[in-house]
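Duplicate of #3305? Posting structure anyway:
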């Protein structure tokens, strides 16, 4: 074969390679992912956790070549944990033709927004909304979680109360919202089945500043254990005001009370609070490099929702690559049928979009805003 012939073949090969590269580049796209949750308001701390996890995942995926070659782009959406605002945010996401959502954060906001996403064929993965109503008794193709449900978290709390605390008389309070009342009801069901008396089951108004009336009731009933379903602003006040009025009962709550701001509100009264949280995935040696990636961006990886949020983005990215498509219908179908290895462990979905398995851990909270695994 002559040199000129070799040259011609080389040029042709180079042109073919360039053409293939150009075609690949042309087929790739920027996939927008909305991060929807409370970026403002009383529980903005949880929105910050979700944002930290999602942004870190997007950065890591893009640095590794994207999701199936597609660049991911974050779009922040603030619903302030308000259902009406969440609906407005969902409609805004639809109008902007965004096809993927991480969030929402609060169950009360996630439930109405999810109806819009399901109807519009938008994939939503919430790393924090635990209310069963989100997925129960509904035929959903596009709605997923990377956290367990209240009917998984509630029994974990109740099992600890029954087996370890063994209280004589219990009060169960809640904030009258989907999340708080739902998990409070789950705990009550299991305690009553175990013949542990629930002397008080009562709702309080979120946002109030004085809970002396209900605390007086706790005193008069002589309860030695209080479970509260809700968020940290109310738990912090309940703890502080209860101690000021001489109530020595142990308090416990779900992951919504487990952040440093409960200590900022309650002060020393937060010492000894029990809380159910996802496992501390930031302490897993397998996630050491990822924790460093958070730290490099001055983000805290240690919290209830950072790693579930990271996992939510990763699963979407892996599903886009696996489905070889950015079409939400194909991506959602892939998510239902496949397992994913993530920082929160192996993730598999049932037909409702719920995790097949998720473990909640009971921690003891301390007055310096740290926590240790409860004995």
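Output from current build:
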């Amino acid at each position: 074969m002559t040199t000129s012939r070799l040259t011609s073949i080389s040029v042709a090969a180079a042109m073919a390679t360039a053409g293939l590269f150009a075609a690949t580049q042309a087929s790739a796209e920027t996939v927008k992912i909305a991060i929807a949750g409370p970026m403002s308001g009383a529980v903005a701390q949880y929105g910050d956790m979700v944002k930290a996890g999602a942004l870190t995942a997007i950065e890591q995926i893009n640095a590794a070549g994207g999701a199936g070659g597609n660049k991911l782009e974050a779009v922040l959406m603030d619903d302030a944990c308000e259902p009406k605002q969440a609906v407005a945010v969902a409609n805004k996401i639809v109008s902007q033709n965004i096809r993927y959502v991480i969030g929402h954060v609060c169950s009360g906001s996630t439930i109405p927004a999810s109806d819009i996403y399901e109807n519009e064929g938008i994939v939503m993965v919430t790393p924090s909304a635990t209310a069963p109503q989100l997925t129960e008794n509904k035929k959903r193709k596009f709605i997923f979680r990377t956290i367990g449900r209240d009917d998984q978290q509630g029994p974990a709390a109740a099992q600890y109360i029954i087996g370890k605390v063994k209280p004589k008389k219990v009060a169960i309070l809640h904030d009258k919202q989907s999340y708080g009342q739902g998990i409070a009801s789950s705990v009550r069901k299991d305690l009553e089945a175990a013949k542990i008396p629930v002397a008080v089951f009562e709702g309080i108004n979120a946002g109030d500043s004085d809970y002396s009336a209900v605390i007086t009731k706790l005193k008069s009933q002589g309860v030695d254990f209080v479970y509260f379903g809700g968020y940290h602003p109310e738990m912090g006040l309940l703890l502080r005001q209860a101690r000021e009025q001489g109530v020595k009962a142990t308090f416990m709550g779900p992951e919504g009370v487990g952040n440093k701001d409960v200590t900022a509100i309650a002060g020393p009264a937060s010492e000894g609070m029990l809380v159910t949280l996802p496992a501390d995935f930031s302490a897993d040696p397998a996630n050491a490099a990822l924790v460093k990636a958070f730290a490099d961006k001055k983000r805290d990886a240690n919290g209830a929702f950072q790693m579930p949020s990271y996992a939510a983005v990763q699963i979407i990215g892996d599903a886009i690559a696996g489905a070889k498509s950015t079409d939400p219908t194909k991506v959602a179908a892939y998510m239902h049928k496949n397992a994913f290895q993530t920082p929160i462990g192996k993730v598999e979905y049932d037909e409702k979009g719920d995790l097949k398995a998720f473990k909640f851990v009971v921690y003891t909270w301390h007055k310096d805003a740290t926590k240790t695994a409860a004995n």
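Confirmed duplicate; merging threads. Residues 1-26 have pLDDT under 50 and may be disordered. Residues 18 and 215 are 73 Å apart (CA to CA).
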